[in-house]
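User: For my dataset I need records formatted as: sequence, then structure tokens, nothing else. Please produce one.
Assistant:
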Amino acid sequence: MTAVMALTTASVPGTDARAQIVLTMEDALEYSSLHNPDLINSRMSMERYEQNLIAQKASLKSRFSLNLQPITFSQSRQFDNRFSDWYTNRSLSSSGTFSISQPIIWTDATLSLNNSLSWQRNESSINGGTSNQAFSNSLYLSLTQPIFTYNRTKMNLRQIEMNYENARISYALQLLNVERNITSQFYSLFMSQQNLEISESELENAEKNFNIIKDKVEADLVTKDEYYQAELNLAQSRSSLENQRVSLENAKDNFKQALGIPLDEDIRVVCDVEAEPVLVSFDKALESATTTRLELRQREISREQQEMSMIQVKDNDSFSGNISLSLGVMGDDPDFPHIYDNPTNNPRVSVSFSVPIFDWGARKARIKAAEIERKMFELSAEEELKSIEMNVRSTCRSLDNLLGQIAIAEQSQKNAQLTYDLNEERYRNGELTGMQMNQFQTQLSNSKMSYTQAIINYKVQLLNIKILTLYDFEKDAPVVPITYDRNNK
């Protein structure tokens, strides 16, 4: 990358000075894509949501877990109601449980296989003292299925997918915003450089005119008031040059901050300021803007999220239930190899319901509030679509108008240059005063700046129409700021 290579070779060996970094528009955009602070923050946010999605998808796979209790000892003094006597109980045990759990995304159920193995030794002082030690193992398969409610597992996954897609769209929009900002500041810096060059040219002409008047005054060919005017013009030109240098340094600092370049570096931008007319079809621009704008996809995501939120609101304090099934076998024996000589089946079925009775209208009010929010969203979506169309219309009109302004500014610059050249000869012959000559100089400088600014305004509007429509009319190709799969599930 040209810009990066320039930065890595900025230091000049053996000197304290730094080489000037020369950047084209392409270099600036490429460098900012890696070092712009706002873009870095947006990219990190996108990566964070990506990791959340990876984690959520991983959680839908089979989960293996092992819980161990290597040793548990307890001693307690208890009262036996049967014999109306106190006794001491000592217990020593060790256990472990191995589980395999599998979420079922289609039904929001959870299927699990569990195996619990334990050893226990128990001693009691009741009836002269008793003791027992044995191994026990319980193996069972269980299924838990929510009923009369929404699929939380599927909805959580979809919400995280939409958050990730939204983050990618936000990153793409940030890319476009950075391109707009960098382009604007690039041309602002370029204009500052041009203004400085124009001020240097003004100073050169002012010095030349001052020397002409000075020689004429010494030869008694003109009066001293012309000398004083030429001296004032020279002082004004020097002051204008210093002002332009300050403005240039400020523009450099702003541009370096936007790029992420250290402020102690010295930079310069170069570009060919040419205005090649670009055919922009209004119908094509409007169609592209209203079908491909990333903000519209963000609206779709927000609409789907609102629908999910409505489902959650309606499910709050509503009738729901749960079904649990379990099939297993349990065995115990003092000798581990004989643990399943006499097994016991342990089936279990349970059905539970949550039945709300009275909530003082809280659920109804929440649903109404969600419906109002959805209506507000739809109104906002309609206004945003109108705003997009208005911006496209306005930018297309500006492009046609700016082409006319460029032609006028170009002709004005040529006329101002011819006028200045003609009157410079008259000034040397003493036919014009210094004040009149200064007016022609100002006219020439303003015409040069106006011509350059008109071309830059046209280029900026071309960039605006590209961002508004996601279509590059200069290359006659759609713009894809970032690739993403909208149907990724």
